[in-house]
């Protein structure tokens, strides 16, 4: 059962013995980061086209450039993977492709631990991505533990490109921020992503 089979939060909770905690923002406020002129100009062109287009167009036109900017801000000391196979434990359904992974390793040829942020792209209804994103976060948690013994916090996001939702997995508790964060403006979302990478 690949990640895409976790179509609801309930399916992921049952499969992996998780608890959920719904609430407000868990990322400190005022995590705004100034955006490079390059990204600003690119998004001005792409948002109008990509925001009403396919999931693939949103991924390539909005989400990937924002995540690339996160890597640039952090002096390329993290790696960004897009559309990579992330099979951790096929027997329990932790297998398949992840839209985006950020790893706190500068190596770009292979996914290395710790995987710290998972971003799942969804076209319209962000709620449809929660189960899949949570399953991918569980996979990242297990991957990190197996590779270097880290029982780390893993962060996740579900986004349409123009709307972002954030999650945190710590132990067996998934915290879900119920707020939607819009893009534009990109500064707040970018700041939140950088904070998650630094604190995951």
Give the helices and strands, then pairings.
Elements: H1 9-16, E1 19-23, H2 37-50, H3 55-73, E2 79-85, E3 97-103, E4 115-121, H4 130-148, E5 154-159, E6 163-170, E7 173-177, E8 181-182, H5 186-199
Parallel strand pairs: 1-7, 4-5
Antiparallel strand pairs: 2-3, 3-4, 5-6, 6-7, 6-8
Helix pairs in contact: 1-4, 2-3, 3-5
Model regions low in confidence, pLDDT < 50 over at least 5 residues? none
State the end-to-end CA separation. Answer: 27 Å
Q: Can you tell me the CATH class?
A: Alpha Beta
Order of helices and strands: HEHHEEEHEEEEH
Mean of pLDDT: 91
Please compute the radius of gyration using only Cα atoms: 16 Å
Count of helices?
A: 5
Number of domains: 1
- What would you call the shape? globular
In total, the number of strands is 8
| Secondary-structure arrangement, i.e. CATH architecture | Alpha-Beta Complex
Structural class comes to alpha+beta
What is the strand content?
Answer: 15-25%
Q: The CATH topology is what?
A: tt1808, chain A
Helix content: 25-40%
The biggest beta sheet reads:
8 strands, mixed
What can you tell me about this protein's structure?
The chain is an alpha+beta fold. The protein has one domain (about 5-200): tt1808, chain A (Alpha-Beta Complex). It has helices at about 10-15, 35-50, 55-75, 130-150, 185-200, and strands spanning about 20-25, 80-85, 95-105, 115-120, 155-160, 165-170, 175, 180. Helix 1 (about 10-15) runs parallel beside helix 4 (about 130-150), helix 2 packs antiparallel against helix 3 and helix 3 packs across helix 5. It is globular, with a radius of gyration of 16 Å.
């Amino acid at each position: 059962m690949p990640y895409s089979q976790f179509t609801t939060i309930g399916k992921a909770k049952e499969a992996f013995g998780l608890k959920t905690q719904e609430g407000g923002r868990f990322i400190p406020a005022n995590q705004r980061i100034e955006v490079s002129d390059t990204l600003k100009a690119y998004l001005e062109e792409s948002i109008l086209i990509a925001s009403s287009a396919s999931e693939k167009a949103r991924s390539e036109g909005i989400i990937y450039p924002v995540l690339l900017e996160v890597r640039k801000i952090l002096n390329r000391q993290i790696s960004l993977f897009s559309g990579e196979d992330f099979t951790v434990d096929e027997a329990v359904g932790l297998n398949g492709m992840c839209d985006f992974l950020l790893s706190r390793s500068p190596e770009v040829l292979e996914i290395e631990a710790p995987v710290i942020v998972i971003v799942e792209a969804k076209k319209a209804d962000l709620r449809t991505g929660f189960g899949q994103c949570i399953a991918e976060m569980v996979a990242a948690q297990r991957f990190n533990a197996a590779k270097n013994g880290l029982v780390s916090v893993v962060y996740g996001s579900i986004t349409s490109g123009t709307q972002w939702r954030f999650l945190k997995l710590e132990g067996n508790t998934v915290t879900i921020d119920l707020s939607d964060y819009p893009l534009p403006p990109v500064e707040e979302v970018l700041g939140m992503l950088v904070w998650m990478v630094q604190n995951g």
